[in-house]
Amino acid sequence: MGSRGVLFVFSGPSGVGKGTLKARLLSEFAGQIVDSVSATTRAPREGEQDGREYFFITRQEFMRRVENNEFLEHAEYSGNCYGTPQKNVERLLGEGIDVVLEIDVQGARQVRSRMPGCVSIFVLPPSFEELEHRLRERHTETEEKVLARLDAAKREIPCAGEYDYQIVNSDLDAAYAQLRGLYLKATGRA
């Protein structure tokens, strides 16, 4: 392969469509770009495999890795710890494989400070009202969870300017075309 891979950081509020956009990119460019696998202290859910969805480790092991500076970024959510193993990302990039991290604003700040060459992309909703509509239309969460996600979005959206690029996802195909163009440009394939 020869050339080094590119690290992409995706952020945006819950319900904005970043996971859908990422899945399309991973599908179209399979073999050239992969999703980073995070480590977590939470228990595996039914059907999840260690090393595929997550690396499942104990809290003690997680804290040891934090102490040894082994994560590109890490955070705690709902009593569980999550982190991106730096060694794994570095190995893939060294093999010429592009890597995408779908992480929150705080995690993205950590990654940008540790790997300033990364390409950061923030996915925005066309409006806050549309984001609320999308979250409610999923019918997957309680009212309390929806309100918590909307509250988080109010804190995250103002941070979009910290990113290299912003994509407004008002139309999925148009948003993907923009993402695809950014990917091709950043990897020198354009």
State the order of secondary-structure elements, H for helix, E for strand: EHEEEHEEHEHEHHEH
Uncertain spans, ≥5 residues at pLDDT below 50? none
Major beta sheet, strand line-up: 2-7-1-8-9
Question: What share of residues is helical?
Answer: 40-55%
Name the structural class: alpha/beta
Oligomeric state of shown chains: single chain
**Coarse shape:** globular
Gap between N and C termini: 17 Å
Notes on the protein architecture:
With 190 residues, the chain is of the alpha/beta class. 41% of the residues lie in helices and 22% in strands. The chain contains seven helices and nine strands. A five-stranded parallel beta sheet has the order 2-7-1-8-9, sandwiched between helices. It has a four-stranded mixed beta sheet with strand order 4-3-6-5. Helix 5 (128-137) runs antiparallel to helix 6. The longest helix has 15 residues, at 172-186. It is globular and about 40 Å long. 31% of the residues are buried. The mean pLDDT is 93.
